[in-house]
């Protein structure tokens, strides 16, 4: 009986390699968020995760969403969280414990969500785009129109969320006497 050749998997393309590197960066940042003992290091890991997510958007050719990710999350939210941590002196220098009474429950819930999401993602038929979008400006114009018509409530709620986060940072920064 002749031996069958073992198929060698193809090497990843440059696009796939860049995606895997950015995905690894995102996962490392997310791991730092949950595993670091210092709250400031958690915030830096969150900023790294936000940068990684923006990179995934850029690789997926969603440049507008990637730029919005950098501006809103990295530029505003991460900076706000970092300043809030730095301005609350007690949290800045103290090390927090990564484990508490809810660690077991959180692990069970996280594992359950992972299994359910993996099952859903594996069973869904993924549509394939038939033709590429040739004019990105039309997409951005339609997105802008959607922000002020169809998605105006979500857009305003995002603005309120940023305003509340800013007000919370100011309250945390005040000296308590």
Describe this structure in words.
The protein has 177 residues and is mostly helical. The protein has a domain at 14-97 and 135-173: Four Helix Bundle (Hemerythrin (Met), subunit A). Helix content is 73%, strand content 0%. The protein has seven helices and no strands. The protein has helices at residues 14-35, 39-59, 63-87, 89-93, 103-123, 136-148, 152-173. It is extended. The N and C termini lie far apart (87 Å).
Topology:
Layout: H1 14-35, H2 39-59, H3 63-87, H4 89-93, H5 103-123, H6 136-148, H7 152-173
Question: Which key phrases capture this entry?
Answer:
single chain, about 180 residues, Four Helix Bundle (Hemerythrin (Met), subunit A)
Overall 3D shape: extended
Low-confidence stretches: none
Number of helices: 7
Separation, N- and C-terminal Cα atoms: 87 Å
Q: C-alpha Rg, in Å?
A: 22 Å
Q: Helical amount among residues, as a percent range?
A: over 70%
Order of helices and strands: HHHHHHH
Task: Kindly state the number of beta strands.
Answer: 0
CATH architecture of one domain: Up-down Bundle
Task: Specify the biggest β-sheet.
Answer: none
Indicate the proportion of strand residues. Answer: under 5%
What's the CATH class label of one domain? Mainly Alpha
Write down the CATH topology of one domain.
Four Helix Bundle (Hemerythrin (Met), subunit A)
Q: What is the typical, i.e. mean, pLDDT?
A: 82
In CATH, the homologous superfamily of one domain goes by the name NADH-ubiquinone/plastoquinone oxidoreductase chain 6, subunit NuoJ
The assigned structural class equals mainly alpha
Q: Oligomerization state of this entry?
A: single chain
């Amino acid at each position: 009986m002749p031996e069958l050749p073992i198929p060698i998997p193809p090497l990843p393309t440059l696009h796939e390699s860049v995606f895997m590197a950015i995905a690894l960066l995102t996962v490392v940042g997310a791991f730092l968020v949950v595993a670091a003992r210092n709250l400031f290091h958690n915030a830096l890991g969150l900023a790294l995760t936000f940068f990684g997510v923006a990179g995934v958007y850029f690789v997926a050719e969603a440049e507008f969403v990637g730029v919005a990710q950098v501006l809103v999350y990295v530029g505003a939210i991460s900076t706000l969280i970092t300043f809030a941590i730095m301005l609350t002196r007690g949290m800045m220098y103290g090390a927090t414990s990564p484990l508490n009474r809810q660690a077991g429950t959180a692990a069970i819930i996280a594992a359950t969500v992972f299994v359910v999401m993996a099952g859903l993602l594996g069973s869904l038929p993924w549509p394939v785009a038939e033709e590429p979008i040739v004019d990105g400006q039309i997409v951005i114009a339609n997105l802008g129109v959607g922000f002020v018509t169809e998605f105006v409530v979500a857009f305003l709620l995002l603005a309120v969320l940023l305003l509340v986060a800013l007000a919370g940072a100011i309250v945390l920064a005040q000296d308590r006497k």
